[in-house]
Amino acid sequence: MMKVYQSIFEYTPDALLLIDQAGRITLANAQAETLFGHDRSEMIDQPVEMLVPPRFSAQHAGHRAKFMVEAHSREMGAAVELFAQRKHGGEIPVDIMLSPMIVDGCHYTLCVVRDITERKAAQDERERQTAELRRLHTELELLANHDGLTGLYNWRAFYEHAGQMLKTAHRRQENAALLMLDLDYFKQVNDRFGHAEGDRVLQAVAATLKATARENDIVARHGGEEFVVAALGLTEPESLMAAERLRAAVAAIENMKAPVTISIGVATFAPQTHKHDASRVLAELLDQADQALYAAKNNGRDQVCHFNRLADLTQTCSRTSP
Fold it and tell me: Is the dihedral of CA 73, 77, 80, 84 positive or negative?
């Protein structure tokens, strides 16, 4: 029967080591020779740290001493990553099971070491694929919601976020403002300097609008040379001041081949007590802001107009002081 046990120990597919209380290797099987690259004669009576990578050996000695004092079984499948040191310097990922045992009154630890190189490679590949899928998902989400040229929200994303903003405004009984912005004489930029310069202008304007608007304002490219901004909590006078800041910021853009100006139409949502459809209200505000923008264009461009004051263009369509 003892020969049967010896055969099981010798030919089990995992590397087996018997460690005494001093941390020395007293027995090693054939698979241990294969796994670690040492003849068993080189391992017997040596500290088990010879099989631990140098970067872990000092720490391992402390853990081993503590384990010997409070010996307990440790199953495979630990959450921590474990590595073993081969004779010629290479490290291999391993899983380890520890089992305290007493032989002839002496305390030992049976150490079962399993090479998990293939499993670790497969796990790393799964993690790499998962990370790649997450990256692609993020990119697709970005493309679905943002304009490719300017990086601003596209019209689809703006409509969704602005609709939510109007619901918030209604719930809180707050004002909200919608601004339609259109570059002045943009066709001339493309005709005179080419579409590359036109794209550069659009990108500069988009960056300026984003930097000048408040952090929670919704800034989007409406299409072509037109932009739109939705802002929560702005009254009519405040929305005019916000629009003027945007107009002045665009007018201050430098290093373009021609001066850049923008016309802005503004519409304001006042708190309402009765229930309303956010989509319908948004459509109305867009129409009102578009009418105000049209008036700003007709009145000379590079100015701000509010829908509620279209009857008095001399007061409304002007460069108001913030």
Answer: positive
Q: Which of 118, 197, 225, 284 is catalytic?
A: 225
pTM: 0.60
For β-strands 176-183 and 226-232, DSSP reports them as antiparallel
Helix (H, G, I), strand (E, B) or coil at 100: strand
| 236, 241, 244, 246 alpha-carbon torsion, rounded to 10° | -100
pLDDT digits (tens, 9 = 90+) for 209-237: 999 999 999 999 998 999 999 999 999 99
Token output for 164: 């939510």
**252 phi and psi angles, rounded to 5 deg:** -90, 0
What letter would DSSP give residue 262?
E
Active-site residue, 225 included? yes
Cα distance from N-terminal residue to C-terminal residue, the chain: 97
- Angle CA 43–48–51, to nearest 5: 75
Q: Are the C-beta atoms of residues 173 and 119 closer than 8 Å to each other?
A: no
pLDDT class for 164, splitting at 50, 70, 90? Answer: very high
